[in-house]
Write a structure and sequence with these properties.
N_methyl_site, two-stranded antiparallel ribbon, methylation, single chain, alpha+beta, Pilin-like, Prepilin-type N-terminal cleavage/methylation domain-containing protein
Length: about 325
């Protein structure tokens, strides 16, 4: 009988083989992580572009109903009639134009604002939590009737105007029975469906909220005044009505070398992925003003490199252009 030697069992992976396998896994993991991160970046950018376009469409719908785009800012008066600053007068008359049946409470009487101008000159508006008066969105409770601002009224910036005029005082549009009744008997709006978890406040003294982009930065908004933009417009508004800057920057309406961008329309701008938090190296908004894509101050590494607007076909406003 012939005997054959038993085969020697093969030992486990050698150290070199294990290291090769680990290296391959690490490379695949890095590639997968980078791909997932890239998908997330592209998805957020697409979401921001979509929201900007929806806001622009909603602003146009508001214009079709009320005759003008939502204003870039409005100063709310604290007396009837205002008579304190020209900004208050302008804000009061704009509200009367949009809401001809707007009611205010003066003393114990509830009157339309236009009648109150003649009946009770110089009287203060209603105090908080009354059924009528100046009502805007509150960050803490979503709806709240605000007390009158200090002398000089209170100013809402462009973003806050978007929330109020596109959403309505309760995010449900403008009800004929509400504090800001539109002309006619049918509800107008809401023109845009703002999500409460995407609304934030800018400071403790002005509880009207901002609408944030997908990265958590507020949108900047500017409306033209016919065929141009007021040269004094900026976002955020200066102190005391706003923080003065967003992550160290302000933005003003955009223009080409020969004319404003969207001279008869609106501008809505997102600060992009680099506009969220200065503690992590974020840069905030690009400055606006004279704008040529890819040229300073919209080159690689600048605050405006990845900004987005409703006037650049979904492309970033800076150097990358995609």
């Amino acid at each position: 009988m012939r005997l054959y030697p038993r085969p020697t069992p093969r030992p486990g992976f050698t150290l070199i083989e294990l290291l090769v396998v680990i290296a391959i896994i690490a490379i695949l993991s890095a590639l997968t992580t980078a791909a997932v991160q890239r998908v997330r970046i592209v998805a957020k950018r697409a979401a921001a572009v979509s929201e900007i376009n929806q806001l622009a469409t909603s602003a146009t719908a508001f214009k079709n109903d009320f005759g003008n785009y939502p204003p870039s800012n409005i100063t709310i008066p604290h007396k009837v009639p205002p008579g304190v600053t020209s900004q208050e007068d302008a804000g009061y008359m704009l509200l009367l134009k949009y809401f001809p049946r707007w009611q205010v409470q003066v003393g114990t009487q509830t009157l339309t604002a236009s009648n109150a101008l003649q009946t009770f000159p110089g009287q203060t508006f209603a105090q908080p939590n009354t059924a009528v008066g100046i009502q805007f969105m509150s960050y803490n409770s979503i709806t709240q009737t605000l007390a009158p601002f200090a002398a000089g009224g209170g100013t809402l910036d462009g973003n806050q105007c978007l929330v109020f005029f596109l959403g309505g005082p309760n995010l449900t549009g403008f009800d004929p029975a509400g504090p800001y009744p539109p002309s006619g008997t049918t509800r107008k709006g809401p023109y845009y469906d703002f999500q409460p978890n995407r609304l934030t406040t800018n400071n403790a003294t002005n509880t009207m909220v901002w609408a944030d982009d997908p990265w958590g930065s507020p949108y900047a908004y500017f409306a033209s005044t016919g065929n141009s933009y007021l040269p004094t417009l900026q976002f955020p508004l200066p102190s005391p009505f706003g923080p003065g800057t967003w992550n160290g920057t302000t933005v003003v309406p955009y223009s080409t070398p020969t004319k404003p961008v969207n001279p008869n329309g609106i501008q809505i701008i997102s600060a992009g992925a680099n506009g969220t938090n200065t503690s992590t190296g974020a840069k905030g908004f690009g400055p606006g003003g004279a704008w040529i894509p890819g040229s300073a101050p919209y080159t690689a590494g600048t605050a405006g490199e990845d900004d987005l607007g409703n006037f650049n076909s979904g492309f970033q406003l800076g150097a990358s252009g995609n």
